[in-house]
Amino acid sequence: MKAVLYRDIQVVKMSDIKRPIITNNEALIKVEYAGICGTDLHIFDGLHPRAKAPLVMGHEISGIIEEMNTERKDIKIGDRVAINPLISCGYCLPCREGNPHLCPNLKLVGIDQNGGFEEYVKIKDDKLYKIPNSLPLDLAALIEPVAVAVHAVRKSKLLIGDKVVVIGGGPIGQLVALICRINGASSILLSEIKLERFNFAKKMELITASSKEETIKKNMEMTKGEGADIVYEAVGIQETYNYITELVKIGGKIITIGAANKPIALDMWKVYFGELTLIGVHVYTPKDIEIGIELLNNYPKIFRPFISKIIGLKDLQSELTGLIDGTSKAMKVLVEL
Ligand SMILES: [Zn+2]
Ligand SMILES: [Zn+2]
Questions:
Q1: Domains (range + CATH), the chain
Q2: Hey, CA dihedral for 43, 44, 46, 47, is it positive or negative?
Q3: Which pLDDT tens digit goes with each residue over 272-326?
Q4: What distance in angstroms lies between residue 35's CA and the mean position of ligand 2's atoms?
C-alpha cells in the first residue's frame, strides 16, 4: 500500500509498504483524511524525542473500517469512524482513576506506531468512534483539535454570560473561542499577533486584538475594567504570562492550554491576593471526543472554515516544508487518501 514515511530531518518519502496485519481487538481503517498537526511539524523538523524514522506520521484521522477483530457489537466493517489517537497503559494511577489522557506512559498514533499518512492504518478497537451519516469525513478529521478545545472549555467550567479572553489564534485557540461562543460566553476577545491568524479570527466574527497593549485595552473596555471571567492561554510562552493576570478578574480563572517547554514565571501575588484559579489542560478524554463529534455534526458551518486546503499524499513533502518555513499559511491542511 502507499504510505508517506518520515525518513530524516525534513525528509518524507512516498513509499510502498506492507499493509498492517491486525490481531485481537484491532481494526484496519481505510484512511480517508488525515490532518497535519503541529506535532507532525515537530517530528518532521527532527525535534520530537520519541519519533524515530522510518515512521508514518499523522494522528488526526477519519476513515472506514476495512477489517476488524473485535467483540464490540456497536461497530461493523464499512462503518465511518473518527479515531482517538491516544494510547495509555491502563494500569498507572491516572489510568486507574479514569484519566487515561494523563497517563505518564501516554503514547500517540503517528509517533509510537504508524499513523494516518498511509492507505490503511491499524487502530485498537476501543479507539474507534462511529460518526453520524450526516458528518462528512473531512470534517470528522478535525476531531482531534476540536476535542482538545472541548476539553479546555469543559475544564474551565464556562458559564453562560462569562466574558473570556483567548490568547493565541492557532487552530486550538480559535476552536476554544468558537466553542465558548457555542456555550454562551457573552463576550470573547481573541489575541493574536500573526496577521493571517488575526484575519481568520475576524472572518469568524471574533473580537480581535493584535498586541499585548491592545488586548489589555479592549479587555478592559469589554469587561468595564473588571477583567475577564476566564482567560485561556493557548501559546505557552513567558510573554503572555507576563500580562495574563492583568486580563483576568479577581476570583477568575486562567486555563493553560499552550505547551510551555520550560518553566514560566507568573505573578503569584495576583494569584494569591485575587484567589485566581490556575487550571492545566492536556489533550482530551474519550468523552471530549464524543462531544467533539456532536459539535462537528451539529455546527458544520463553524468548523468547515478550519479546513484551509486538502492535498494528496504526494504533496506532503512540499506542504510540510511550506508549513515549517512559513510559505504555507494554513489553519488546517488535510491529506486526502
Ligand atoms: Zn493534533
Ligand atoms: Zn497509564
A1: 2-130+299-336 (3.90.180.10), 149-280 (3.40.50.720)
A2: negative
A3: 999 999 999 999 999 999 999 999 999 999 999 999 999 999 999 999 999 999 9
A4: 26
* 8 bridge partner residues: 11
Distance from residue 337's CA to the centre of ligand 1 (Å): 18
Q: What is the pTM of this model?
A: 0.97
Give Cα 89 distance to the centre of its chain.
21
User: What pLDDT score was predicted for residue 261?
Assistant: 87
Q: Which ligand minimizes its atom distance to the CA of 88?
A: 2
Which of 42, 277, 282, 321 is an active site residue? 42
30 CA distance to ligand 2 middle (Å): 28
Ligand lying nearest the CA atom of residue 95: 2
Reported as a single tens digit per residue, the pLDDT across 24-55 is 999 999 999 999 999 999 999 999 999 999 99
CB 306 within 8 A of CB 177: no
* Residue 42 appears among annotated catalytic residues: yes
Pairwise CA distance, residues 42 & 50, whole Å: 11
